[in-house]
Amino acid sequence: MRPSKRPSRATELLVEHVEEHELTRDHLEAVHSALARFWSLVQDPPDEKWRLLFEIAVAEIAANIVEHAGPPSITIRLRQAATSVVAEFTDSGSGWSGTPGPAAMLDELDERGRGLAMAEAAVDEVSYTRRGRINHWRLTKNF
Amino acid sequence: MRIDQSRESDQVSVVAPRGRLDLASAPALREHMRQLISSGTPRLVVDFGEVTFVDSSGLGAVIGGMKAARLAGGDLRIARPNQQVRLVLKLTALNKVLRPYETLEEALAGY
Questions:
Q1: Nearest chain B Cα to A67, which residue?
Q2: B56: distance to nearest CA of chain A, Å?
Q3: Residues near A16 by Cβ (< 8 Å), separated by ≥ 6?
Q4: From CA B99, how far away is CA B46, in angstroms rounded?
Q5: Do B87 and A67 touch (CB under 8 A)?
Q6: ipTM of this complex
Q7: Which among A97, A98, A112, A127 is placed 20 to 30 Å from B107, CA to CA?
Q8: Chain B residue numbers touching A27 (CB-CB < 8 A)
Q9: From the CA of A65, how many Å to the nearest CA of chain B?
Q10: Nearest CB to B57; choose among A32, A63, A122
Q11: Vertex A60: Cα angle to A88 and A54 (nearest 5)
Q12: Closest chain A residue to B61, measured at CA
């Protein structure tokens, strides 16, 4: 009998890439660069449209953190498992009082408030938790 | 962000931002379009040919420009979006109000 502690194939970590950055609204490129480095490590990367959708969600959450939480730095952890890719952000900025879910009704010509809805439309799951003084955002996109 | 601009006629201008149109660069595009509209050029074409990535703030600036242009009796069209810009327009259903033109010539035709 095989040991049962071995993680299941679905959640087994294949690639992990972690970066910490001092991010400001003028230096969001660090997030795009981190993602580019991650894709270069991923074996059999998904097609361009899939990767763009993931990048759209990652960019929206990063911009949201910079604009609303204003932390001194942000850690992004990118992981590939057998069935999904996950991006996790941790920061020590202000807490967020909302919960991800169906976005508030937006008029099609509203100029703000679209970011989280875009992230939710681009990936399979968006979650937010605050533990102590640390914010955690997690984006999951299944293959 | 670098924004190129060309005047096509008395009332039509092409605005061509370059690079990433995001939280950092959206205010510059917004201000650029505001100045064009207030100086009597209410018909705008935003040429996305050199835009590599757009986020919700960038989209917000374009929507703001369209509303200001319409208030001034003009309009806003977008041309030459790449795959990422098209995906974002589709995700937000904004492709219904901002129908992209394949080429600058098509965007300017009959404008």
A1: B23
A2: 5
A3: A77, A78, A79, A80
A4: 12
A5: no
A6: 0.92
A7: A112
A8: 24
A9: 11
A10: A63
A11: 65
A12: A111
State the DSSP H helix or E strand holding residue A29, giving kind and residue range, or none if neither.
helix A29-41
Tens of pLDDT, residue by residue over B18-74, are 999 999 999 999 999 999 999 999 999 999 999 999 999 999 999 999 999 999 999
Cα–Cα distance measured from residue A71 to residue A73, given in angstroms and rounded to the nearest whole number: 5
Exposed/middle/buried for residue B24 (C-beta within 10 Å: 0-12, 13-18, 19+) = buried
Closest CB from A52, A114, A122 relative to B83: A52
Question: Residue A124 corresponds to which tokens in the numbers above?
Answer: 């399979």
Neighbours of A46 (CB within 10 A): 16
CB atoms within 10 A of CB A88: 17
Question: Which residues of chain A have a pLDDT value below 70?
Answer: 1-11, 99-106
pLDDT digits (tens, 9 = 90+) for A58-97: 999 999 999 888 888 899 999 999 999 999 999 999 988 8
| Tally of residues, chain A | 143
Substitution target in B88, B97, B99 with the highest count of A β-carbons within 10 Å is: B88
Q: Which of A78, A61, A58, A71 is nearest to A128 (CA)?
A: A61
Helix (H, G, I), strand (E, B) or coil at B38: helix
Contact with chain B for residue A66, Cβ under 8 A: yes
The two structure tokens encoding residue B29: 């595009």
- Give the span between the Cα atoms of B47 and B109, in whole angstroms: 14
